[in-house]
Design goal:
single chain; mainly alpha; Growth Hormone, Chain: A; 3 domains; 3-stranded antiparallel beta sheet; two-stranded parallel ribbon; 18 helices; 7 strands; PTR2_symporter_CS; transmembrane; MFS_trans_sf; Protein NRT1/ PTR FAMILY 6.2 isoform X1; membrane
Length: 582
């Protein structure tokens, strides 16, 4: 009997609801079946995003600023919907059903997008070459079908991103040393395959879009996702399923409601009189910060449910530990707010930077580099930076400071600095590009006698910045959040990406309105060669620098909390150990 119990996982069940048997469920094989879903999601989302701006401008005949905003709104919605996906997974569906349902939604979205780019009725007629400025914009019906397909994909992405990595980690028993090693291996490969999916998207898929046809490229995405779903479902009997713990959002709301209800009641002078029901080993020490929330733990007679005297109503009475968990999440918010601007600068790499590239000389011999494929330098910068950090910086830092690399906040700071320098480089490159365009009198259809490799520094700097800020944010939000709210903190991290894209859309709209005129000119003109994109990039550089100063103030204010448990977040976030990369 004891041997049988040792082969089961305490907090996991199999597909029938029985305790999960280690010998028949979970492990690396089960986790590997989940990876295909993430690869195809990355392939679809990035393959669409990095080259969508050229389709909107060149085929749908939308103005430059409108095209850029459409892309950033699409990406922003994709990441924002991660919160919805996480809520549904935690509260109702579980991770397995969430992945299955939302992967089908994304398959339908990419299939509809393939159809919308294939049928002539769903796009406007080509421009008249003799009247290049009289292009007919896509009508409401055509844009409606395009938006429907894009936001189906965004909905699918949101649901998948919130659950795939978590469901993969569910396949390993954290109390088993051997399986913990396998979990590390899974996270290593998880990030590796994400990178492979991104590289394939910005190279092969973008090339197919430009040279063969967009409908073929999007059709490949739809078919590959369908195959990935079949592979995922084939592992149903092998998976381990963790029981739902309830939504952290509901727990936070309970504390706020209880504290608000008791706002007029005075706090007891002795903290020990506050309600606490958590086991001693899992309790969080009381803190004096945000003491207004402590009122949620004041014990009153009416807090207990009728006929169940031992069970308090969670909307009226919360434990000190639950209150402290909410306080910990609130402490994260200043750092959270000051990382949003980075993703606003990131958004320019897949919108205006791609537009810049489309006007420049992109030939290498007889081969023409697709404009969207310039983001390969962005992805390459991420991988190179992570490799240098793991192989060189960590070892040198450990010898010098005795610490394994930079702290999470230090990495975020480095990312913010690199993005500021990147936007400065982008502004200088655009000054050069505009001077050449002015000399030759180029239009958006004219290829300027200027090498596209002039844009490499901005891609490389912002890409290197992402390598630092992404891993820093992931480390910070997971290790500094309470154990019961890890999913919530991951959603909080992903929401910075979402808000960064939305801020980009808002900034573009404001700049176009303030600097524009009736003839479509201004910083963000309909014809990129008639605008002043260098000024827009300069504005982003200044904003990034001011934001960096605010971030430094927030880090001084932030009272660092001790992580709830030891996480191998460096490996999980970076994707590979130093030994493997070297």
């Amino acid at each position: 009997m004891e041997n049988k119990m040792s082969l089961s996982v305490a907090d996991a069940v199999d597909y029938k609801g029985f305790p999960a048997d280690k010998s028949k469920t979970g492990g690396w094989v089960s986790a590997a079946l989940i990876l295909g879903i993430e690869i195809c999601e990355r392939l679809s989302t990035m393959g669409i995003a990095v080259n969508l701006v050229t389709y909107l401008g060149g085929t749908m005949h939308l103005p430059s600023a409108t095209s850029a905003n459409t892309v950033t709104d699409f990406m922003g919605t994709s990441f924002l919907l991660c919160l919805l996906g996480g809520f549904l997974a935690d509260s109702f569906l579980g991770r397995y059903k969430t992945i299955a349902i939302f992967s089908v939604v994304q398959t339908l979205g990419t299939g509809l997008l393939a159809m919308s780019t294939r049928l002539p009725q769903l796009r406007p007629p080509p421009c008249n070459t003799t009247l290049s400025r009289k292009c007919e914009e896509a009508n409401g019906f055509q844009m409606g079908i395009l938006y429907l397909s894009l936001y189906l994909i965004a909905l699918g992405t949101g649901g998948l991103k919130s659950s795939v990595s978590g469901f993969g980690s569910d396949q390993f028993d954290e109390k088993d040393k051997k399986e913990m090693t396998q979990m590390t291996y899974f996270f290593n490969r998880f990030f590796f395959f994400i990178s492979i999916g991104t590289l394939t998207a910005v190279t092969v898929l973008v090339y197919i879009q430009d040279e063969v046809g967009r409908s073929w490229a999007y059709g490949i995405c739809s078919v590959s996702m369908f195959v990935a779903i079949l592979i995922f479902l084939s592992g149903t009997k092998r998976y381990r399923y963790k029981k739902r713990m309830g939504s952290p959002i509901v727990h936070i709301l309970q504390v706020i409601v209880a504290a608000t209800t008791k706002r007029k009641i005075e706090l007891p002078k002795n903290v020990s009189l506050l309600y606490e029901d958590s086991p001693e080993a899992t309790r969080i020490q009381h803190s004096d910060q945000f003491c207004c929330l402590d009122k949620a733990a004041i014990i009153l007679e009416e807090d207990y449910q009728r006929n169940v005297s031992s069970t308090p109503n969670p909307w009226k009475l919360c434990s000190v530990t639950r209150v402290e968990e909410v306080k910990m999440m609130i402490r994260l918010l200043p750092v959270w707010a000051t990382t949003i601007i980075f993703w606003t600068t990131y958004a320019q790499m897949i919108t205006f930077s791609v537009e810049q590239a489309s006007t420049m000389e992109r030939s290498i011999g007889h081969f023409q580099i697709p404009a969207g494929s310039l983001t390969v330098f962005f992805v390459g910068a991420i991988l190179i930076t992570l490799a240098v950090y793991d192989c060189l910086i960590i070892r040198l830092w450990k010898k010098w400071k005795g610490k394994p690399g930079f702290t999470s906040l230090q990495r975020i700071a480095i990312g913010l600095v690199l993005s500021t320098v990147g936007m400065t480089a982008a502004s200088l490159a655009e000054v050069k590009r505009l001077s050449v365009a002015k000399d030759v009198g180029g239009t958006t259809s004219t290829t300027l006698p200027l090498s596209v490799f002039l844009l490499v520094p901005q891609f490389f700097l912002v890409g290197s910045g992402e390598a630092f800020i992404y891993t820093g944010q992931l480390d910070f939000f997971i290790t500094q959040s309470p154990k019961g709210m890890k999913t919530m903190s991951t959603g909080l991290f992903l929401s910075t990406l979402s808000l960064g894209f939305f801020v980009s859309s808002l900034l573009v709209s404001v700049v176009k309105k303030v600097t524009g005129s009736n003839d479509g000119q201004g910083w963000l003109a309909d014809n990129i060669n008639d605008g002043r994109l260098d000024c827009f990039y300069g504005l982003l550089a200044v904003s990034s620098f001011i934001n960096f100063l605010l971030f430094l103030l927030c880090t001084v204010w932030y009272k660092k909390q001790k992580p709830q448990r030891s996480l191998q977040i460096e490996i999980a976030a970076n994707g590979s150990s130093a030994e493997e990369i070297c």
